[in-house]
Design goal:
The complex is a heterodimer of chains A (about 375) and B (about 500). With about 375 residues, chain A is mainly α. Helices cover about 75% and strands about 0% of the residues of chain A. With about 500 residues, chain B is α/β, with parallel strands linked by helices. Chain B is built from 18 helices and 22 strands. Chain B has a 6-stranded mixed sheet, sandwiched between helices. A 6-stranded mixed sheet of chain B has the order 16-19-20-13-21-22, sandwiched between helices. In chain B, strands 2-1-4-5 form a 4-stranded antiparallel sheet, with helices on one face. About 0% of the residues of chain B have low confidence. The chains are: A mainly alpha (about 375), B alpha/beta (about 500). Chains A and B meet through α9 and α10 of A and α10, α11 and β18 of B.
């Protein structure tokens, strides 16, 4: 029985999502549409249709990587709100590597672009990491501010030095076709970025769970002073964690350029970095659950368009439902499984049942 | 029968399944000093919190001045004339005495009349011989004076029952006598004083009546004059306390292992906390460090273990300079173990399972990890072995350390810090918050390590503990070692003087 209750608690984000969708159904009904029809359109469009899945996977790639970029520092107790900026810097560095380097075969050039993108994002993570570790500055504020800086740097670059001549709005020249990432579902835009994301999720899962690196991160996250006592170089570890997180965020931007847009656009990420925060919490900071939660969130986003077309629902309603999902998931995480509480509860019940049993038997005798 | 000021009948308090107070009776005579005696966890503080309205009892009645009452909140308690002085002072350091007293005082209008208050406070201070200037900022006052400010605070609120929770635990020995005189003056003024303590001498000196608590039950209530210190100790602990020294095998000391010369370091607030500390520890020797909390002991331990940087001075172990070594290297290359003062903040990660805490400082070395991969099998085997040998009571190795009792947490830390076979062991306040059984276990472990030839630094504010186990006692005051004594020389007056910063040569 205790086990069953424990599993119920473990699945709490799922219950939260269900509750949010239920409340969302109310919203849809109020706006004059049949919620069942709307949800059918949403889920078919996102998960049960070849092209729909393709569309979902396109969004899964950056959202999953962003989620991982949030999870790693959060294990050490650092909130990385700066993934959005890291995505932009990743996109910028990889686009520069793609456009400015001399011609070379794709097999060499692609890895260079990917590394450049990771480096760009990594630097954008390194700055708040350093300021946090060595100067005690709040990483939340620093990362938020760095987002604006990165977004504006990209806007400037693609609107000026790297802008394609005669372009109607700010974007760069197209990158060479030899740099395009392979597709994974023919006929759709889905590219290998999502596979890289899943592999990374698995690697990070093992790293955090079974290695000394994960042990050190978890120790710092739970008690930094004990970490210092344990002989962990806390400052260095914080800087390293933020660099790696930034690099993964940078990959998200890189794959947007190399796998989907083939150019550097201004404002090319519609807030994927912030979606990463939702993914991280929906996955309860467990990297192995991140692909699932990223896929789900991407599905909501992709399916929303389908739903809008199919039943003529305002996209604002869909956004409201996304908001509900976030709030419900965040709230659900506040409920933690308390073994002693449930133990005692079950014990009281058993006692009660035992007493009732006694009462029944005496009644029978009396009768 | 004298007039009963306060009477508790059959008061009980439950925390979950735990009976913190079990049908406690308490009879406090008006104008007396009533001591509540008991060990850590006997329920003394819970009882006082009920009197002050912080907790509501689960059963029983409270009679004040012969009338049955309920104390719903501290605010109401103050209105009823009950004042409480907590173990940790509730004062704002940057405000003056008068400002602190007026802070939160009911009946203040839009404008303060601090001068009037200050004048009244001067008068009050004079009445009780407290010698306090109401215009001085709190941070300029020594601890003993701050305590008087706390007492003035409740007197100014017209309290006639004054509850003091472990009032002497923060004081230096020379301040304690002054404090006890203050209590007597309060009694002369007709106030009723209830003070919680576990120190027998203080009870014997000023107490009129005494209630002894053990495991939440009253074991005795009597006049102090009718009992002896020895009897009180027996009632408190439930058996005769071993006040004499623990048996120490007469092993010879070896070479000097740790040699510290002129250590200087700053604390977190940027104030020089170590001002040239020097000492040696030989193999098989326990050097005790006594002193009132906050005189540089914590910084000394941190400097030795590498957690805090040294400003200057030399530190060698076996002749090897270790000043540049990191925490990790000091533990693994040099062999310095450390049982920190604060189990929860430093020694353990409370939300880690027992097994993870067992390897907290060694997770990077075999057999706990190989090539960066944690070896769960080996970890559980070794942790399980320690748990058995050190008698750590737990449900499973996966249980979070948060749910272990303080004694069991400390046993786990000791296992970890001793089983790595160190050369130097630094223990800081190892018995803080532990019961008598756990204290014995801790001291036994320390003495075992001494017999194995380790160099041990034993930092504690509990003089009895230090005298029990140490071969020499260093006394610290204001970042300096004011003297190093042998246990025979270490009378409480001498240690008290050194703790207060009076060096031996000044006495002579």
């Amino acid at each position: 029985m205790l086990e069953a209750i424990r599993y119920f608690y473990m699945l709490r984000p799922v219950w939260a999502v269900m509750a949010a969708l239920l409340l969302g159904a109310g919203l849809i009904a109020v706006s004059g549409t049949n919620p069942l029809e709307a949800y059918r359109a949403l889920f078919t469009g996102a998960f049960f249709d070849y092209y729909g899945i393709g569309g979902t996977l396109v969004k899964t790639s950056p959202i999953l990587l962003a989620g991982l970029a949030v999870i790693i520092p959060l294990r050490a107790g650092l909130l990385n709100i700066g993934v959005e900026g890291q995505i932009y810097m990743g996109g910028l560095f990889s686009a520069m590597a793609a456009l400015l380097l001399p011609d070379m075969p794709g097999l060499i050039h692609i890895p260079i672009c990917v590394l450049a993108g990771a480096l760009g994002g990594g630097l954008w993570g390194l700055i708040p990491g350093y300021l946090k570790a060595y100067h005690g500055m709040n990483e939340v504020i620093i990362t938020i501010l760095l987002n604006f800086i990165a977004i504006n740097i990209v806007s400037y670059v693609v609107g000026g030095p790297m802008m394609q001549e005669g372009a109607p709005y700010p974007y760069s020249v197209e990158i060479g076709e030899h740099l395009w990432l392979p597709w994974i579902m023919p006929g759709t835009d889905a590219h290998v970025g999502v596979i890289v994301g899943v592999v990374l999720a698995i690697v990070i899962f093992f790293l955090l769970r079974y290695t000394t690196v994960g042990f050190a991160l978890d120790t710092i996250g739970r008690n930094a002073q004990a970490g210092r006592y344990a002989g962990i170089r806390v400052r260095r570890t914080i800087v390293a964690a933020m660099f790696v997180a930034g690099a993964i965020g940078g990959l998200a931007g890189t794959f947007e350029v190399l796998g989907l847009k083939y150019r550097l656009y201004h404002l090319f990420s519609p807030g994927y970095g912030f979606d990463g925060i939702i993914v991280a919490f929906l996955a309860m900071l467990n990297p192995i659950l991140a692909p699932l939660s990223a896929f789900f969130l991407s599905g909501l986003k992709a399916g929303a368009l389908v739903m809008q077309r199919a039943v003529g629902l305002e996209s604002t309603v869909v956004e409201a439902i996304q908001g509900l999902v976030i709030i419900f998931v965040a709230a659900s995480l506040a409920f933690t499984y308390d073994r002693t509480f449930w133990n005692r509860f079950l014990e009281r019940r058993r006692n009660l049942e035992a007493k009732l049993g006694d009462a029944n038997s005496t009644e029978k005798q009396e009768g | 029968m004298t007039n009963l000021k306060l009477q508790l009948k059959q008061v009980s308090k439950l925390f979950g399944d735990f009976k913190a107070l079990d049908n406690v009776d308490l009879n406090v005579v008006e104008g007396s000093i009533h001591a509540i005696l008991g060990e850590n966890g006997a329920g003394k503080t819970t009882l006082m919190n009920i009197l002050y309205g912080l907790y509501q009892p689960d059963g029983g009645t409270i009679k004040l001045n012969g009338k049955e009452t309920v104390v719903p909140s501290p605010r109401k308690a103050m209105d009823m004339g009950i004042g409480m002085i907590h173990q940790h002072f509730m004062l704002v350091d940057s405000l003056t005495v008068a400002e602190n007293v007026v802070l939160g005082l009911p009946g203040q209008g839009m404008q303060l009349s601090l001068e009037d208050d200050a004048a009244k406070l001067s008068q009050l201070s004079e009445t009780y011989g407290f010698d306090i200037d109401p215009h001085v900022e709190i941070w300029k006052l020594p601890i003993g004076m701050r305590q008087r400010v706390e007492i003035l605070k409740v007197l100014y609120r017209d309290a006639d029952i004054i509850i003091l929770d472990e009032p002497t635990s923060v004081l230096a020995p020379n301040e304690i006598a002054n404090f006890l005189d203050g209590l007597k003056r309060l009694r002369e003024a007709g106030k009723t004083v209830i003070f919680i303590t576990h120190k027998l001498e203080e009870v014997a000196e000023v107490g009129d009546r005494i209630t002894v608590l053990r495991h939440g039950k009253v074991t005795a209530e009597t006049n102090v004059a009718d009992t002896t210190a020895k009897e009180m100790a027996r009632m408190m602990v439930g058996r005769d306390v071993v006040l004499d020294m623990m048996e120490k095998p007469d092993t010879p000391f070896g070479d000097v292992i740790v040699s510290a010369r002129d250590l200087r370091a700053h604390n977190n607030r940027g104030i020089e906390a170590l001002k040239g500390v020097s000492f040696d520890i030989r193999a098989g020797e326990i050097l005790g460090v006594a002193g009132v909390d906050g005189n540089g002991q914590a910084e000394l331990a941190e400097v030795l273990t590498g957690i805090r940087n040294l400003d200057s001075g030399s530190l060698t172990v076996h002749g090897e300079d270790i000043t540049e070594k990191l925490v990790y290297d000091r533990r693994h290359e040099i062999g310095i173990s450390f049982v920190p003062e604060d189990r929860h903040e430093t020694g353990l990660v409370l939300d880690f399972p027992v097994s993870h805490n067992a390897i907290l400082r060694d997770f990077k070395v075999p057999p706990y990890s190989k090539n960066g991969i944690l070896q769960k099998g080996a970890i559980n085997k070794i942790a399980g072995d320690w748990v058995e040998r050190y008698d750590v009571r737990l449900r499973s190795l996966d249980q979070h350390v948060r749910f272990l009792s303080g004694g069991n947490q400390q046993k786990l830390i000791f296992a970890r810090e001793v089983e790595c076979d160190p050369r130097v062991i630094i223990v800081m306040q190892p018995c803080k918050g532990l019961d008598v059984g756990a204290i014995e276990a801790v001291q036994r472990t320390v003495l075992e390590q001494r017999a194995k030839g380790k160099a041990i630094l034993y930092i504690s504010t509990e003089l009895e503990h230090i005298l029990n186990v140490c071969d020499r006692v260093a006394v610290m005051c204001a970042g300096e070692i004011t003297g190093i004594l042998s246990p025979e020389e270490a009378t409480s007056e001498r240690i008290g003087a050194l703790m207060g910063g009076i060096k031996d040569e000044e006495v002579a």
